[in-house]
């Protein structure tokens, strides 16, 4: 099993996608010009991207709006043909073997449903069983498992059009996994959902990844999804792949500040500490903020221990959402930046 997990199931080499944007000229003369002259510009949505994802990995695919995330997912799922490069998913070329490919992947695209709008949810599931040719026992076992985890029973007999967004997203996730695809593409699976619905969906994603070794590529703007689910992240911006590695390493590299929370053993009148900023105080508990490139946590702890009696302390990393936002806003990873 470990050997199988080590094999790449998604292989992307120098992948690119260009779009032609035709220029539209206004006015009477412009309309005539549009008839006889088709001028256009080229938009490079994805540029020379290379990465591999191995069996059983769950990878976050991040980037600001317009970065090329959805374009990549559509090429991986066979909806778009690349302009250049190579792409294999489970040994298949998605756009060349589209029928076979679609039968062996799962996809959830944000607020677009794959269910039949006017049919009860359970009827959609049975239709998908026949479309994907899922054996009876496999279908019953999977449906029972997913009903329990996603709490589907209260709305199984309701038409899809009557579902809330959270209910419909849970039903879509069930629909995408009934045929046990080895690879699943999730594009904004928690968008617009409340905290309870998000937690239910995250728990389900964790379950299928851990229990079935399902390979998952997750795109989202909700960084808490990534922090909860993914150890590895790929970041794309302006069509370029700018980071591929551990989320923890990204935090260590670009989380510019950290916090040291100290519980003093006795009252301290002015607990100031050089190269830090005191940002909060509650009785004997004091929170300092410091730049990781100016002083280390161990140096600060040694300073504190030499001056005061300490009951307890902890080092806190910045919120991952703040780190990702800083990377986008300051171009810290973009080719040619100061990094």
Protein described:
The chain has two domains: 2-251, P-loop containing nucleotide triphosphate hydrolases (Rossmann fold), CATH 3.40.50; 256-316. It contains twelve helices and 13 strands. It has helices at 2-5, 27-36, 69-76, 98-102, 121-132, 136-150, 165-177, 195-212, 223-229, 247-254, 297-307, 320-330; strands spanning 8-22, 40-54, 58-62, 84-89, 105-109, 183-187, 215-219, 232-237, 240-246, 257-264, 277-282, 285-291, 310-316. A hairpin with a 2-residue loop joins strand 11 (277-282) and strand 12 (285-291). The longest helix has 18 residues, at 195-212. The chain is globular.
How are the SSEs placed, and which strands pair?
Layout: H1 2-5, E1 8-22, H2 27-36, E2 40-54, E3 58-62, H3 69-76, E4 84-89, H4 98-102, E5 105-109, H5 121-132, H6 136-150, H7 165-177, E6 183-187, H8 195-212, E7 215-219, H9 223-229, E8 232-237, E9 240-246, H10 247-254, E10 257-264, E11 277-282, E12 285-291, H11 297-307, E13 310-316, H12 320-330
Parallel strand pairs: 3-7, 3-8, 5-6, 6-7
Antiparallel strand pairs: 1-2, 1-4, 8-9, 10-12, 10-13, 11-12
Helix pairs in contact: 6-7, 7-8
Short characterization:
This protein has 339 residues and is of the alpha/beta class. It contains twelve helices and 13 strands.
The CATH architecture of the largest domain can be named as 3-Layer(aba) Sandwich
Number of strands: 13
Number of domains: 2
- At the fourth level of CATH, the homologous superfamily of the largest domain is P-loop containing nucleotide triphosphate hydrolases
Strand content bin: 25-35%
Structure classification: alpha/beta
- What's the helical proportion of residues? 25-40%
Top-tier CATH class of the largest domain? Alpha Beta
Secondary-structure element order, as H and E?
A: HEHEEHEHEHHHEHEHEEHEEEHEH
**N→C terminal distance:** 39 Å
Query: Looking at CATH, which topology of the largest domain would you report?
Result: Rossmann fold
Main sheet specs: 6 strands, mixed
Overall mean pLDDT stands at: 86
Number of alpha- plus pi-helical segments: 12
The strand order across the widest sheet is 5-6-7-3-8-9
Describe the global form: globular
Task: Calculate Rg over CA atoms.
Answer: 25 Å
Low-pLDDT ranges: none
């Amino acid at each position: 099993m470990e050997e199988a997990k080590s094999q790449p199931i998604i292989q992307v080499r120098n992948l690119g996608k260009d779009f032609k944007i035709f220029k539209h000229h206004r006015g009477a003369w412009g309309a005539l010009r549009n008839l006889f002259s088709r001028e256009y510009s080229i938009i490079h949505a994805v540029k020379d991207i290379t990465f591999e994802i191995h069996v059983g990995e769950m990878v976050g695919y991040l980037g600001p709006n317009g970065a090329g995330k959805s374009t990549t997912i559509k090429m991986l799922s066979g909806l778009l043909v690349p302009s250049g490069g190579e792409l294999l998913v489970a040994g298949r070329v998605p756009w060349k073997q589209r029928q076979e490919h679609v039968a062996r992947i799962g996809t959830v695209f944000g607020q677009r449903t794959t269910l039949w709008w006017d049919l009860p949810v359970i009827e959609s599931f049975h239709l998908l069983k026949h479309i994907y040719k899922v054996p009876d026992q496999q279908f019953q076992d999977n449906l029972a498992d997913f009903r329990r985890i996603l709490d589907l029973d209260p709305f199984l007999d309701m038409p899809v059009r009557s579902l809330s967004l959270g209910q419909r997203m849970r039903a879509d996730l069930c629909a995408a996994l009934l045929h046990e695809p080895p690879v699943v593409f999730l594009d904004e699976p928690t968008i617009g959902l409340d905290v309870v619905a998000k937690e239910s969906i995250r728990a389900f994603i964790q379950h299928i990844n851990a229990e079935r070794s399902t390979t998952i590529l997750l795109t989202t703007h909700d960084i808490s999804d990534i922090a909860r689910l993914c150890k590895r992240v790929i970041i794309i911006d302006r069509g370029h792949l700018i980071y591929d590695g551990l989320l923890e390493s990204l935090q260590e590299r670009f989380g510019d500040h950290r916090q040291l929370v100290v519980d003093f053993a006795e009252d301290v009148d002015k607990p100031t500490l050089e190269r830090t900023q005191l940002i909060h105080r509650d009785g004997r508990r004091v929170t300092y903020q410091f730049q990781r490139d100016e002083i280390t946590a161990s140096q600060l702890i040694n300073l504190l221990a030499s001056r005061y009696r300490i009951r307890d302390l902890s080092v806190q990393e910045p919120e991952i959402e703040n780190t990702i936002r800083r990377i986008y806003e300051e171009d810290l990873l973009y080719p040619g930046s100061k990094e």
